[in-house]
Amino acid sequence: MAFHERGQKFLNELPGIQHDLPVSPTMFQALFTLTSEQSKASLEDIARIIEKDQGLTVRILAMANSAYYGLQSQVSSIHRAVILLGLKEIRRLVLLLNIRSLERRLDPDLFDVADHWRHQVTVGHAAKIMATHTPDIDPGELFTIGLLHDLGKVIIALYRPQDWRVILELSATKNLPLFIAEDAYWGLDHALIGSMTLKSWFLPPSLTEPINWHHAPELAEGYALQARMIRLVDVLVRHQADPRDDEGGWPDEELSARDMRTLRLPEDLGQTLIPDLLASSRTDLFLQGMGFTEDSRSA
After folding, report:
1. How far is CA 282 from CA 53, 69, 193, in A?
2. Which DSSP helix (H) or strand (E) runs through 72?
3. Residue 281 burial by CB count (10 A; 0-12/13-18/19+): exposed, middle or buried?
4. pTM
5. Residue ranges in the chain assigned as alpha helix (H)
6. 3-class secondary-structure state, position 201
7. Rounded Cα gap, residues 78 and 83, in angstroms
8. CB count, 10 Å around CB of 225?
9. 134 and 122 in contact (C-beta within 8 Å)?
């Protein structure tokens, strides 16, 4: 019970993390409001908000000019970046760059940031492609959810490193999937922690709810398909990258087959798509744009 109380205390402290972001909470909220579907703000308005932060401007331009996007000409202004990449992509970049800034304080011996992001980006790309086969799912939104689905692991390792060590040891010694070990340890898992963190950063339920329930999609009222897609892709990517990795709950072939049917996906899609993504340069290009090098093993 004492450790469960420790977990609840941590949940209550999560909103304070926004004060550790390089983009101020006020600016962050304004930016997400201006780029919402309901906003009538002009591209110039959005560019002016971003340009107030020189560091953020430099990092967005670096990403926009990376090989990942393959733009035909150099992007030299935020206004031009917004036009070429689109509002949703700019918003996604701001969010990822903020998270990357937090990771620079992580202990590299405790958390391998490069491996973490390789998994996140591969899941994001796979989910985006798979979502095109399922009605009523936005592929672009699934990409963002895939990129963020394990944010809670970063938050635990950064702000509660001793608890993270104990959870990893419990998972290893008891041969438990990580999210099960987390729940056994303090009554919550990284999915909830990631979701609660993102809620405090003013992200909408369409992103936070699938993240919250990606290990239990049947409980994701209103967002079950999105959560189920992330669970499926998470498991497939982990297994095909390393068959010994059972963190996502693998092997459960019957459960994965059921998810494939529920999502109306071609039976062989996961077996062909994931290996192709793992062998392609797409994930590497994205990681390089985010500031990782080929030898990078930490932030």
Report:
1. 29, 10, 29
2. none
3. exposed
4. 0.89
5. 2-13, 25-34, 43-51, 54-64, 78-85, 87-103, 113-131, 139-148, 151-159, 161-174, 178-186, 190-200, 205-212, 224-241, 253-262, 269-279, 282-289
6. coil
7. 9
8. 21
9. no
DSSP annotation of 168 reads: H
Measured CA to CA, the distance from residue 154 to residue 149 in angstroms comes to 11
> Is there a contact between 288 and 66 (Cβ–Cβ < 8 Å)?
yes
Which tokens is 102 given? 């937090």
Per-residue model confidence as pLDDT tens for the chain (299 residues): 567 888 899 999 999 988 888 776 667 677 777 777 777 778 888 888 888 888 888 888 998 999 999 888 899 999 999 888 888 888 888 888 888 888 889 999 999 999 999 999 999 999 999 998 888 899 999 999 999 999 999 999 999 999 999 999 999 999 899 999 999 999 999 999 999 999 988 788 999 999 999 999 999 989 999 999 999 999 888 877 665 555 544 446 777 888 888 888 887 787 788 888 878 888 889 988 888 765 444 44
CA distance 80 to 131: 29
